[in-house]
Amino acid sequence: MSATFGERLADAVAARGPLCVGIDPHVPLLERWGLPDDPDGLARFTDAVVGALAGTVAVLKPQLAFYERHGSRGLAVLEDAVARARAAGALVLLDAKRGDIGSTMDAYGDYLRPGHPLHVDAMTVSPYLGPGSLQPAVDTARQHGGGLFVLARTSNPDAGTLQHALVGERTVAQVVVDAVRGWNTPGWVVGDPLPDLGAVQDQASRWGPTTGSFGVVVGATLAELDVDLGGLGGPVLAPGLGAQGGSVADLRRLFGRDAAVVPTVSRDVLAAGPDPAALRAAADRWATELTA
Fold it and tell me: What pLDDT score does 207 carry?
């Protein structure tokens, strides 16, 4: 793959806008659609969402857990959906939140390898065994043009229990952000001093050909932005719009208008189904508001 994930993401945002729609087929939503909680209901739900949205939105974000709970048949549904979505032009971000060490982390990184049955453009990962534990997935992403979004400052109520803890003078969340900043800096490897912030400040915030392939997850419903994203060099995945309480105004308040932010909406779009036109209309409303 010649283009990096960061380049493909910047191109997709330029062509389609920044909206990411989560695909979260949890039981209450299947029931709302009048579908059974089984692999057939899962397939009908997923087919409808991909068919309605993959041709227009920049990113689709399936939540792996909702497919794994149906076993091999559920994963087969996801394999088909990922291939169809990417063929229609959407980037696929697998919401897996994987985190481990050594060969196990390397195996999780295989989702980014061409030829994998679930080959996706990017995936979410957890750094809480230490940011360096993610290095095998970083290496795979670099080799194959994939991307990673690392949990950094999430907005679930007790996130601060760990994310506000101090490592020296920095919070855990800031340590994560700084590690990802290093990954987006050419030549930097784990163990090196962190790159000088001033030297990379210009690549921090905007979409363009220098957008890095490594991003962080920062919740759109935070009361305030309590991590420094300066010099990040890559995108911010901002979940929480809509049903979780986040708004476009919150995005502007936290990140400004020019940042490389991928806002994520799930329930507010998915609740409009199963009618494909209604799904598209719901996504279009968010896309219009995000670009206003």
Answer: 79
